[in-house]
Amino acid sequence: MSARRSLVIGGLGFIGVNLADRLLTAGDDVTLVTPNRARHEARAAAFADRGAHIVEGDLRDRDAMARAVAGQHLVFNLAGESGAVRSMEDPWTDLDVNCMGNLSLLEALRTVNPSARLVFVGSRLQYGKQAEQPVGEDQEPDPLCLHAIHKLTVERYLKLYAALYGLQYTIARVTNPYGPGQPESRTAYGVVNRLIHLALADRPLPIYGDGAQRRDYVFVDDVVSALVRLAESPASLSRAYNVGSGTGTRLVDMARIIIEIAGGGRIESVPWPELAAQIETGDFVADITRIQRELGWQPSVDLRDGLERTVALSRGQVQA
Fold this sequence. Notes:
The strands form four sheets. Strands 3-2-1-4-5-6-11 form a seven-stranded parallel β-sheet, sandwiched between helices. The chain has a two-stranded parallel sheet with strand order 7-10. The chain has helices spanning 14-25, 41-49, 62-69, 84-89, 91-112, 146-165, 191-200, 220-232, 251-262, 274-278, 289-295, 303-319, and strands at residues 5-9, 29-34, 53-56, 74-77, 117-123, 168-174, 176-178, 204-208, 214-215, 217-219, 240-243, 249-250, 266-270. Strand 5 (117-123), helix 6 (146-165) and strand 6 form a beta-alpha-beta unit. By secondary structure, the chain is an alpha/beta fold. The chain starts with a strand and ends with a helix. Helix 1 packs across helix 8 (220-232) and helix 5 (91-112) packs parallel to helix 6 (146-165).
């Protein structure tokens, strides 16, 4: 039998490289789409050596997306602009990539490969500020930034295309992912990885205010396992699922664990930037009951173990 064909759009990004590794290990015929191969040439070459197909293409390019989705069984869309603050500072790019880009992908699927299964990766930012914790999928969203509004808009696109054209999709609303694979240069998102890089360099770890806000940090291996489960399960069709640890940890406590494990760095309290303070959601802990009950998925890596793994791998990269 021929191998399952899996397409990962944004396949050379943080979650993408971890997902691609899992799919290749499972024996899938994997295609990775990136807007700029040269920017990730080392990763691209390593995956190509393992048999992956590397394709340059922008999510907004309808022709490129049509070529990419042709013949695929599974399509994972990890591409897009990230960052709540960045979406407010540059709303046009966030709108263009996250809305227009997803429409381009949906039109490509509709016209070229309507039988493919699409997994769309959303964000916990879609919920905004929620008084009731943990936050379940059916709680009314109250987005505080354009990034979150655009992610919610894509979910509406998906529902419409499913109703009109039979598109098969599932949604993963991911909390705060961390783990190996995020470049040190990425600072607009991925706070855990950013703090690890600073601690290993024995630099201050900036914490806004008192750092008491709780977040739900989920290890990237667990995120990947959830995405694969969502893609494979008939029960997840047209459903949205929180993908998180289900546990809340204060930001300052997470930073202290990183400093202890890394053996360097120090906490530095800094004032909230005005815009960041305006769109801050406060505490967020995901209710992961739905994905546990319906799909049998649950996280397997606790925070300390995940941080130890990430620090060890990051330290090795720095020393190399």
